[in-house]
Amino acid sequence: MTFRHVSSCGIRESTSVPVQNPAQRLDRRTLLKATAAFVAMATASGAPVAKPRSAVAQEASTQAGEWRQPDDVGGGDTLGFEADFPFNAVAPNWPGDTPFPAAVEIELSMDGQTWSESVVVGPAHTDAGPPDRGGRIFGDLLFTEEARMVRYRGLDTDGNEIAIPGLTFTYINAKAGPRLSDVTASSLNPSSNRPPIIAREEWGAERAYGGADRGEVEWPPSYQTVRHVIIHHSDTPRFRDPLVEIRSIHYYHAITRGWGDIGYNYLVDYMGNVYEGRVGGENAIGGHAFQYAHGSAGICSMGNFSLETSTPEAIAGLTWITSWAGRDLDPLSQRDFHETPNLPTICGHRDVVNSTCPGDGLYADLATIRWAVADVLAGAREVLNDPQYSPGQTIEATAEGGNMRALPGTGQSVAATVPLGAVMHIVDGPTTVDGYNWYEVTGNRGTGWMASTLFGASDAAPPIGSFSVDQMLEVDTNFLNIRAEPSLRSSAIATVPYGTKGSVIDGPLPAGGYRWYQLDTSYGSGWAVEQYLVLEGQGKPRTRFMIGDAVAVNQQAGLRIRTAPGLGTSVLATLPNGTRGVVIGSGRVSDSITWLEIQTPLGTGWVGEPYLAPSESGPATSSKFEPGDSVRVDTDAVNLRRTPGTDGSIVRSLGAGIVGTVIDGPSSATNMWWVRVDTDFGPGWVTEAFLAPADEGESSREFNIDDNIYIDTDGINIRTTPGLSSSVVTILYRSETGRVVAGPRSADGSVWYQIETSAHTGWGVSQYLGTGAADPGGSTGISIGDVVAVDTDGIRLRETPGLSGSWLTTIYSGEEGTVVDGPRSANGYVWLKLRVGAAEGWGAALYLTRVGKASLTIGGSARVVDGDLNLRAEPGPDQEILGVLADGAVVEVLDGPRAVDGYEWFRVSSSRFGAGWSVSEYLARN
Fold first, then answer.
1. Whose CA is closest to 35, among 232, 315, 371?
2. Host H or E run for residue 323
3. For labelling, which of 262, 767, 803, 883 has a CA lying 20 to 30 Å from the CA of 479?
4. What is the spatial distance between Cα 270 and Cα 284, in angstroms, rounded to a whole number?
5. pTM higher than 0.70, yes or no?
6. Residue range of the domain that includes 325
């Protein structure tokens, strides 16, 4: 059974920080297009509002019950109870004078046989207007599809089982009343200045009070002119029916906690519907941010945006109601508000209270939303039309010698001159610069930006896209509308959840600024937007942990920590059971396992998520830096914050290689060490996990056009233009290869080169690129000469790499062989050629584990692996260095081995440096 964990004020403490591979963001162009679609929808006669069916409107009120814990309960007991009726939400509360900080561990079940995973519920935020009922402490609200039974344990802040005197549970069934299916098209035509808002009586506010809406009596509204808009999220991932969610939150706020009404002024669901919240209308003081609710409009976007971004419809609805509620404000300005100076007029909950709300995903989009609101207030109804061209669309030049520029703008450098009639495709855009609408285009003359006056639509070639007919795709966002036609204005046939599979039956079709595909799904056939689709099996992994979470190894035999995700990668160490760590990287899937990057006292690397458990808070390692140290950013991008911790407000993002000086710290917050760094972009706090000493490594590398390169780190974002604010085209992972086609360019403190791969073209940071090809063992952790063993029931050896190669023989679990060639890529697998006895053939590296390395032989040859290698005059780490052998260099083995200072040494001969001694650990038999 699944459940959702939400705070009554719409937050849950989490410690996510956008770093190297952040969640996908909706860029300004997407937001503007979504806003345009919503504006058009709102001003048309078919604007969406909820109109309950008459039969629905007569159903019973919201059901709620309480269960009080017996007085004689002792500590250490696991207790439970059965509710009088099935419920969809439950929350605990306990006396305010409880003499210790308390929490409750809860599991839910419908039948008493199958139980949900346990969740620890602590006190909810108390930032409402009225005080909580009876001075009690109320916990966060848990959502579930349906449950009837609860079992629980009282805990103190150290996780010890304790008795909590006076513990009480409230359980709620808010399913009676209007449902999502009752939100239908209305014949009403809203006014030109106000979005369609689903009123309290339409979503069922009266059901909390037994049949009549008493919000105005129970919590009489008071008013103060809105000077700020504060954005929240409800922290309810994948909750299917927003009307049930609203009624549950409303009951918990109004009745259980005794406020008399819901705390938010407005709410927005994932379909873009806007709901009336707090009674009293405009300028009514809500209960959503302590004193900051006075003089602000609190708007809750329903969903969990800690790791995800919202749907275009939801962003449009949020932008539109923010424009209405803040129509007398300057959305791009800042002004003092209560105790906070220079607070943005459109801000997040975390900007005014100690909270992670509205989640890193939505918070990162606030700057773009401010611009979208500014455009709406400036007359977006007339100017925010659908883009003239869409990604993938075919165009042709309508002028002779039109300039294709490196960046949008008439003052930017000319990358190429395009002849009349040249056929190209749209990559990105539009953006308005120097009075022209600019699109990024690609064709035989390269990739760059052109003004829309220089080209027109063309049928000379089919549109391009990421997928093709008959491919099986799956939905890679919480929910996605599939539509009757390829347009945001078209009616939604169904709203399908994450992981839904569908076969492509038509597309790509560029329309309305998006690429669309028609899918055949179990929910029906309809059109969906490309950016929320992936090939089957390639969806983002779901994990119990987020960046910043403290974890511990939960495997009695210990857990291997690896250099990269996957069973075939090199093992750094074996972590004993109970070893603590902190999650510092987003999840990836490899070998059907979700992997997390963690930092531990034994090193930083990747481990299997199923073998981790939550751990006590606090950093897992000792701090690395102190005031006066020079440091540099050692990842694609890291946030510079005003205060230590992932809940600190973000000053800006620092690019790879940016250097600074530590001026304060280290300070422990959100399970990590933080230092305050003075940079060219100002001071701020940065987590140590993504910093390195300034003199360690290179801040940038130089390349020439047409150089072959490979990715020399775990993975980097490839972007449409140089700079951290541009859209991500794709992510290239370690050892993937490409070719330099443009650059260098300087942006955001980093040097960028444009890279062309077999599937994509985009810009990457030079620091994470290497010249030539990667170490062939780098992608598998296995090199030529290594001894490997079969790590599955058995694998076939083939005559050539790939599934089409002739089958030679089968080797079984535990059988060993020596790698003699490879790796090669074919059919989506990496292949290695093995010698097993007298047989040789190619096997999939996925099912092979390195168990040893073939010994070097005098008179044979060897290859340098895993980085550059010192060649010394005599064996020993303190001997004179004759030269440095490059990674991949081939040498002749002359003598050895000799054991000196704990290392095994061989004498080798290099064509460049002559003869000398090197450590055998970095030599593989050739």
1. 315
2. helix 312-325
3. 262
4. 25
5. no
6. 25-47+183-207+214-383
